[in-house]
Amino acid sequence: MIDVIFNIINKFGRLTYGEDITQIEHALQCAQIAREDGAADTLIAAALLHDIGQFIDDAGHAAEQHGIDARHEVIGATFLARSFPESVTEPVRMHVEAKRYLCAVEPYYRAALSRASELSLQLQGGPMSADEANVFAQSPYFDDAIKLRRYDDTGKQSDWAVADLEFYRPLLEKLMTNHGADAPKGPQG
Ligand code: FE
Predict the structure, then answer these.
(1) Rounded to the nearest whole angstrom, what is the distance from the C-alpha of residue 151 to the centroid of ligand 1?
(2) CA 30 to centroid of ligand 1, rounded, Å
(3) Which of 63, 106, 124, 128 is deepest in the core (most CB within 10 A)?
(4) pLDDT tens-digit readout, 96-139
């Protein structure tokens, strides 16, 4: 499964999706920021893999180019749930909602978004209402989702040399709940 994930990232990671850096640079920077922030391994993994839904659903990405929100965060979290615990997949699933939340509760947050993030915000439903924000703040993994969102917003620097994908292999392997056994189980279980 790790090889499947790395192959997907390597295959699609050279695309930019409207930002100034490639997706692989973005993923590696987010993971680096999480490490420098002293985040738990689960959150480091979430930071590295949070946008994988944009790579595994090319049709969805094409849809986003045409102004349709393909919900890449849900696609990614669902894909990762085959191998990783909720502590990894929930922040991934929530990272777009976290942006909508922060736009609602922090006056200066929205103005600092990248152009691509601002554009996608509109497709994603814009800032949360006060009621939505209150509900969201009660969610399990809320704190990690907010942290991931801030890593996501910061991990867009040009010319920053960070650890490469292979650096994260042991960390990911340790977190995996299903050691790559994607094939359906036989009658013996
Ligand atoms: Fe991102």
Answers:
(1) 8
(2) 8
(3) 128
(4) 999 999 999 998 999 999 998 999 999 999 999 999 999 999 99
- Determine the distance separating the centroid of ligand 1 and the alpha carbon of 130, expressed in angstroms: 24
**Both structure tokens of 30:** 């987010």
Residue 38, exposed/middle/buried by CB under 10 A (0-12, 13-18, 19+)?
exposed
CB 91 within 8 Å of CB 40: no
Of the chain, the percentage scoring pLDDT greater than 90 comes to 76
